[in-house]
Structure formats: C-alpha cells, structure tokens
Amino acid sequence: MKVLLIAESRDGKLLGSAAELSHFAQTLNADSAMLLVGSESALPAYGGTLYLADAALAGEFNPAVHKQLILEVVAKEQPQLIVLPHSSYGWDLAPRLAVALNAAQISEVVEVKDGALVVPTCNAKLRRTIKPTTEISVVTLQAGAFTPSAEPSGTPNVVKLDAAPNGDIQFHGYEAAEATAVDLSKAEIIVSAGRGIGKPENLAMIEALAKALGGEFGASRPVVDAEWTEHSRQVGTTGQTVSPKLYVACGISGAIQHLAGMKKSEFVLAINTDKDAPIGEVADVLAVADLKQLVPILTEKLSR
Amino acid sequence: MKLLVCIKQVPDMESKFKVNSEGLWYDSADLAWRMNEYDEYAVEQAVQLKEQLGDCDLTVLCIGSERVKETMKKALAMGCDRGVHIADDDSHRKDPFAIASLIANFAKDKGFDLIFTGLQSQDRGSAQVGVMVAELLGLPCLTTLVEFAFENGTVHGKRELEGGTKGKVSCATPALVTCQLGLNTPRYPTLPNIMKAKKKELLSIPAADLSPADSRTQTLSMAPPEKKGGGLILEGEPAELAEQLLQILKEKTTVLA
Ligand SMILES: Cc1cc2nc3c(=O)[nH]c(=O)nc-3n(C[C@H](O)[C@H](O)[C@H](O)COP(=O)(O)OP(=O)(O)OC[C@H]3O[C@@H](n4cnc5c(N)ncnc54)[C@H](O)[C@@H]3O)c2cc1C
Ligand SMILES: Nc1ncnc2c1ncn2[C@@H]1O[C@H](COP(=O)(O)O)[C@@H](O)[C@H]1O
After folding, report:
1. ipTM for the whole complex
2. B192 within some domain
C-alpha cells in the first residue's frame, strides 16, 4: 500500500504532527511520500520523498492552492490513502480532497485494527470500526494517537513543487493568543470546573477548594465560552497545557481536547455524576458524586 | 439575503449509550435529544446576521426522522423563518458524504447567499459535512470560526487554531461557514417566540426525492472502548467519600504533606 502524508506548518514552523503521520504509515507497513507547504529551513526528520511547496508563494493557509498541489502529487504517486492530522488545518482540507477525488473520508482515527480504522463516537463513549468502500480514501489522525516511541530520523529527498497563490479565500495572518494572566503550566495543584458546575455562582466552590488545597483553579471550555471565567483559565488544546502533581476535574466529561491539556498530570481526581464519563480513562480516582455536595465537604475538611 | 443553517439533532452526551441490535450505531431508545451544540452557534450567528441586515430569509434544515422536528422548532423559536425537514429514518446509516449530498442537492438551485453549519456533530464528530456541502456547490468555505462579521458582501472571520492562536480570513459571498464553540452566545427562545414558532412553515421532503449519494464508508462494528485506565471508582455518601478521598490524597500524592 502507498500512502501520501500531508504535514503541516504554522508561522514558518513545522508542526510535530509530521512524526505522527510517518509513524502511522509504519503501523500500516505502507510505502509513503510526504507533502509539505512550508519552508526549506524547517524540514521534517523523514527518510522518504518530500514534495515541498514554498509557503511564501503558495500561502501557508490557502486551502484551494494546497488542494491543487496535493491533487498533482496524488496523480503522480497514486496513493490509496491520503493522511492528514485531525487539526484545524487537516479537518479543513480533508473534505475538500475527498470531494475532489471521489474518495471516502474517515475522521479522527485513533487505532488501526485488522486493516480497518477505529474512530471515537459520542465524546469517546463509543468507538466505531470503519472501512472505506472506495479505492482511494482520505483519513485524519487524532493528535497523539500515533506518537512514535523514538524520535524520528532521516533526511528527506526533496522534490520542489511550483505554486502560485490564487483561490477564493484571503488569509490575513495570525493573531496570537491573548497573553495569559494566569500561568497554569507551573501550578502544582489545579482544581478545574466543567459544565457540570451548572451555573456561574458555583465557580466559587471550585475556587474555595483550590484555595484550601493551596492551588489554582482552572476550567474546561464551556465555562470559558459562557464567560464564567477568563480564557487564561482554560485547560486543553485551545487553552493551556498543564502537568500539576494533583488535578481535580469537577463536572468535566473528559473530551479529547480537554484531556490533551491535562493528561500529563501526576494524579487525577475526577468528581462526576456519570460513572461512564470518559474522564475515567485518565483519572486515578473517579468519585461518582454531585460536585455541589462533595466539593464543599472536601473544602471544609481540608480547612479544619 | 437568503440564508440557510444546517442543524443536527443529537443525543445528550451524558446519556448512557447502548449499541443497537445491528451492532453498528447507538440504540436510539431512552435518550434525551437536543440540538448539536456547534449548531446552536450556527443558528445564533445566522439570526444575528438577519437582525443586522433586516431583509433576510433564513431557512433551517435538518435531516432525520420525525423526531428531529422538535429540535427544528427550537431553531424556529430562536429566529429562523422557515424549516425544511429532510425526512430520513435512515440518516444514521448515511456517512457524512451522503448527508452532504442531500444538503447540496436541496440547496443547489435555491440561491442561498450564505450557509451556516456547525464545525462538527457531537455524535459523529467528523467535521466533514459543512466543507463537503461547500465543495459540492463550488462555494468558498471558512471553517472553525470563532469570530464572524459581514460587510458589503464579504465575510470576515477568525479561525481558531491550536493553542488559542487565530487565523484571520475573509471571502466573498455566496459562501459557507462552519461554526466553532464560543462564536457567540446562543439565545434561549422566549415563550412568545416559542408560540410564534409553532405557526412557522415546516416543510417535509422525503430524502429519496433529493437523490442522496451512496455512503463511501462501511461501519463494521461499534462498541464501548476497552477500559484501560484501571482507575479506582468510588461511590457512596458524600461525607464518607470525602474522608476516603483525603486519605487517598495523603497516601498517593505529596500535596497534602
Ligand atoms: C477544536 C476544538 C478545540 C477544543 N478545545 C478545548 C479546550 O481547550 N478545552 C476544553 O476543555 N474543551 C475544548 N473543546 C471542547 C470539548 O470538545 C468539550 O466540548 C468540552 O471539553 C466539554 O467540557 P465539559 O467536560 O466541562 O462539559 P460536558 O462535556 O458537558 O461535561 C459535563 C460533565 O459534568 C458532569 N456533571 C453534570 N452535573 C454534575 C454534577 N452536579 N456533579 C458532578 N458532575 C456533574 C456530567 O456527567 C458531564 O460528564 C474543544 C473542542 C474543539 C472541537
Ligand atoms: N443530519 C443532519 N442534518 C442537517 N445538518 C447536518 C446533519 N448532520 C450534520 N449536519 C451539519 O454538518 C455539521 C458537521 O457534521 P459532521 O460532519 O457530522 O461532524 C453539523 O454541525 C451540522 O451543521
């Protein structure tokens, strides 16, 4: 089998997903080639053929041009599978390729099982095993699901692609994340509030527990989106990455984007009314309880 | 302007899921249903645009069984003008491409200036349907928007990228946008608007009339993930639980020393 891997670069830097893509190709025992719209000064550690288009010419974010470049290489390499990271870049580009190639698309693959692909469903409470029914298919990989155990090595054999910017979308550059008022990355103890707190008034009991433990409080995305607290408290892929000695997740279901931000915590205590909540997968202890009852008692016992 | 917003009805993710008798999807019995969270942002943005421009006709579209009409009524109560229900008891067996083909076949001769979808559905989570609809219709598509503005026929948006960085993008209409969490603050329908929504047009079209494409994927099986975590699960009275937890924190961590 032949696979074409689509690496991603952001603001002139190659993203780490390139290593996961080539590890996925190895998992499949497939021949691979890679394509990158990026720069010659930031090449992946990859031993195969790398088709390289200059981001300065093609545009770093320009789906129409990237699609065209990929289609050219597909015509040359004839892969059965085109593989992208399941990232803001990959989930934007993959369906465009699938439509252009009359290809099946399978999103957010976490595992390969007997040649079929496994994807999460319903906030990871279920998993489906899927197979494409087309000759060529497009897949995206969940971040972290195919991390190689060793640092990748190799020098690519670079083949340059010409590109001229055009397309129906204008890209006007990046806007950096707001400067974080709170640096959770260094906190040793974090108590985080999720949607399960129910209403903004209940954030106070999470803060009180954090204080009683001598730590900081954090939040999952819905708490931030509802403006119950500021973005600098958000833990996850689009917030902060934390690695405290103790992480207490209160009323947080454990979506992959939240887990990505806290799974390096040394000890995880989850408080959740749902015994099957996916947070259980990373929790050392899951206390099945209403946080509104348990959290104040914990705080009180600690303060004594 | 003619606006279209596509919504999906999904189960509450806190539900207990069981695999259905076919073994290929979840059992739809005993579930609480709601509007896909991402689509609430899409509906809100479409309604806000209608309020900004005044002269708009906003259609909400949903593919699914008779049951999905309940969720469509919420969108009508939030401010959509009319509903198009694509009646399909089989929609859970269709993959995102087949779903997208239905939407595109419906929309292709209607002259929509702007189509809104969610970034992804909470049950499938594929993030495919919106972009595929745009590609099938030959429209520019801005995805993962956390900011949206419309001025003189142009959509200006900010895409959310990993780590909280944003990408600033724009395109001319007609176009399609996919909406990410936090794009706006979805409104709660008021009682008068819920009453008014009952009188709004809600047209049903059989899916077969829109010649859906075949699915391009085949589901082989569905199952809950194997439990690898092996963490301790504690249940009981809150006061006793609290005692147990403190004991465990003392033994297993260094933070209470
Ligand atoms: C591209 C992208 C990026 C994202 N980035 C992030 C990110 O950086 N961070 C992030 O957190 N999310 C992020 N998300 C959102 C993520 O997918 C989830 O929607 C989110 O993490 C859910 O937050 P939650 O667990 O608080 O809410 P829910 O999933 O709604 O879970 C609430 C939980 O509370 C429990 N509960 C309810 N009542 C109680 C009670 N009384 N006591 C105890 N428990 C209770 C429920 O059982 C449930 O498990 C992102 C999503 C996307 C698509
Ligand atoms: N059955 C459906 N009916 C109407 N719109 C849908 C349906 N399924 C998906 N969509 C739209 O497509 C988006 C992406 O869905 P998905 O590709 O399944 O993750 C959703 O947020 C909806 O806006």
Report:
1. 0.96
2. yes
